[in-house]
Write a structure and sequence with these properties.
The complex is a heterodimer of chains A (255) and B (236). With 255 residues, chain A is mainly α. Helix content of chain A is 84%, strand content 0%. Chain B has a single domain (2-82, 146-235), classed as P-loop containing nucleotide triphosphate hydrolases (Rossmann fold, 3-Layer(aba) Sandwich). Helix content of chain B is 32%, strand content 26%. In chain B, α6 packs across α7 (223-235). In chain B, the strands form two sheets. Chain B has a six-stranded mixed β-sheet with strand order 6-7-8-3-9-10, sandwiched between helices. Chain B is α/β, with parallel strands linked by helices.
């Protein structure tokens, strides 16, 4: 399995897109910190950009990469190699490359400008989001042979997590404004890894006061050691559940 | 040894394999023939574990194919249409496969030498012609000297010289007591290679006979005529 991962990583590096992605992240981070005197403000801008760009790049690049490596997968399948190792190697290669390029692209500027707990939280959450959206891409692409459909599905999923979900939450908030649903919101936020990442970083920034009563509830829950632990577990589930589902499907797929 | 027992497979509404069963031992060279779309490639892919049958079992050298993978080290497979990572060169593909297989055994490089593939090692797979791609597939199939060879239309797209080289190699391997399974539409080239014939139609295995019996039954000496005889009979 190590050898397959090696070949996948070599291929991804040769592909240069991941290197360009690191470069763009570096450029964005340095610009943001260079423009703002206040690193807290810079961090907020960076957070919004990261929550937007990272899932998008990870899900689209991974989906296209998986489709393009169908020949590679077929070639390996006729060799004495477990299906499971082929699929997991693909995941490890993609998740490793994308998480590392995030670590380099955002981590280096953070190290130079802001070595606070907020920065570290942003880094951890960004790496989580990278591997989560690779797992979602694996799930989106295993179901269909049609590349256009697979990529379309990936874009839909990204739109859902980045935009539509927030719309639904806002709608629910207004509809049930008369009821005490603040506590339920904590549970709802676990349903979207992007939101969970945003909350975790915002709470470290002391701007949660701006979020009103819900913010206070969030702070009560996610601010504690226990809350942090729970959110880490939830993020880990988001990274593994789609992967395991896709592995199950891949094991039963005709190639 | 390949043992296939009562396998069925449907793709959507189309039933591609209907209750196919057979058993073959080493030392036989069998031809799998039948019209286009009769399920030959699906049967081969089921043996390789690439297509999972809906019911029935397949065993290779007594190891069940379902959920197994080590048995594939004993199979050399030459696909009908080879699909390779386009941005890798021939040399890189060969090197990668040897690296991943980690086999310490001596590799069989007869085919690589006979086709002078080494001179093409820095060509990218995406730029290769169909025939050269076939040569690469053949080289990979024979590389690890496996006991079972599965060749899906091996000579399609090869020039006459190359297909003669490949036939020589197949004969040579057959003499070593290997189990060889070939599909082809060019029956005349199978005549001097095979010992058994399997005929498939619409997903059914119509018959599985050794060539002598077939010749006696039909009274024809040439395989092509014997099969034509049989096809006419089933038409009626």
């Amino acid at each position: 399995m190590k050898k397959i991962i090696k070949y996948i990583l070599l291929d991804i590096v040769r592909n240069k897109i991941v290197l360009a992605y690191t470069g763009i992240l570096l450029a964005i981070s340095f610009t943001v910190f260079g423009l703002e005197d206040n690193t807290q403000k810079g961090m907020l801008t960076l957070l919004n950009l990261v929550l937007f760009i990272v899932p998008l790049v990870c899900v689209i690049f991974s989906t296209i990469y998986i489709y393009n490596s169908s020949e590679f997968v077929e070639l390996l399948l006729s060799q004495p190699i477990k299906r499971k190792s082929i699929w997991l190697s693909l995941y490890t290669g993609l998740a490793g490359a994308l998480a590392l390029s995030f670590l380099a692209g955002v981590g280096i500027p953070l190290l130079l400008y802001d070595r606070s707990a907020t920065g570290i939280t942003l880094l951890i959450m960004g790496m989580f989001l990278s591997i989560i959206f690779v797992a979602i891409a694996m799930l989106a692409s295993v179901g269909t042979r049609d590349k256009a459909r697979g990529i379309g599905l990936s874009i839909m999923l990204w739109l859902y997590f980045a935009l539509v979900f927030d719309g639904i939450v806002l709608f629910l908030l207004f509809q049930f404004a008369d009821y005490p649903i603040e506590k339920a919101m904590v549970g709802v936020s676990a349903l979207n890894p992007v939101d969970l990442a945003r909350i975790m970083v915002l709470l470290k920034m002391d701007v949660s006061a701006l979020m009103g009563y819900t913010g206070a509830i969030f702070k009560d829950f996610f601010g504690t050691q226990q809350g942090i632990l729970v959110s880490m577990v939830v993020m880990a589930i988001w990274a593994t559940a789609p992967l395991l589902l896709s592995l199950r499907k891949f094991n039963r797929k005709d190639l | 040894m390949i043992e296939v027992t009562h396998i069925n497979k449907t793709f959507g509404k189309l039933q591609v394999l209907r209750d196919v069963s057979f058993r073959s031992e080493g030392g036989t060279c069998m031809a799998l023939i039948g019209p286009n779309g009769c399920g030959k490639t699906t049967l081969i892919k089921s043996i390789l574990g690439m297509v999972l049958p809906d019911s029935g079992t397949i065993a290779v050298n007594n190891e069940p194919v379902a959920n197994g993978w080590t048995y594939r080290s004993q199979i050399g497979y030459m696909p009908q249409i080879g699909r390779y990572p386009e941005n890798m060169t021939i040399g890189q593909v060969m090197e990668m496969i040897s690296d991943i297989r980690q086999s310490n055994q001596k590799t069989d490089e007869d085919i690589i030498n006979a086709f002078s593939l080494r001179q093409l090692y820095n060509k990218r797979m995406g730029t290769l012609s169909g025939g050269t791609m076939q040569k690469v597939s053949a080289a990979i199939a024979f590389l690890f000297d496996p006991g079972i060879m599965i060749l899906d239309e091996p000579t399609a797209g090869l020039d006459p010289v190359a297909s003669e080289i490949l036939k020589e190699k197949i004969l040579h391997e057959k003499a070593k007591g290997k189990l060889i399974m070939i599909t082809s539409h060019i029956l005349s080239e199978l005549d001097d290679l095979i010992s058994h014939v399997m005929y498939m139609q619409d997903g059914n295995l119509v018959f599985n006979k050794d060539i002598e019996t077939l010749r006696k039954e039909t009274g024809e000496d040439k395989l092509s005529k014997a099969i034509a005889h049989f096809m006419k009979k089933t038409d009626r």
